Amino acid sequence: xxxxxxxxxxxxxxxxxxxxxxxxxxxxxxxxxxxxxxxxxxxxxxxxxxxxxxxxxxxxxxxxxxxxxxxxxxxxxxxxxxxxxxxxxxxxxxxxxxxxxxxxxxxxxxxxxxxxxxxxxxxxxxxxxxxxxxxxxxx
Length: 139
Known about the structure:
- The chain is α/β, with parallel strands linked by helices.
- It has 5 helices and 5 strands.
- The radius of gyration is 16 Å and the shape is globular.
């Protein structure tokens, strides 16, 4: 037997479950170079489009990352899936198998970026301004 504790964090003014519903409608992309996070509506972007907007980085689905394996690059024609988190990694990261330390580091950095309000892809370029969130320790 054990003790089980559950908690639910909601943003002020939202009803429970609304955050989960919102989460499931968008794909999240975390740029591991600058720590920014963006949201894409379902069916709004393909992996190749995201990579073209981020030269020098490759898109990987977070659920496909495993210890002892190289991060698999998403196919250019792959539609971003709602509710999924994707990471933009530099090519050097794809060249070697992930260690447990690597995977934990990616998870912590992605979590920090996603705790902030991700920028929608449309809003990020509206008016010629780009708003992004930054990871701690990155300049």
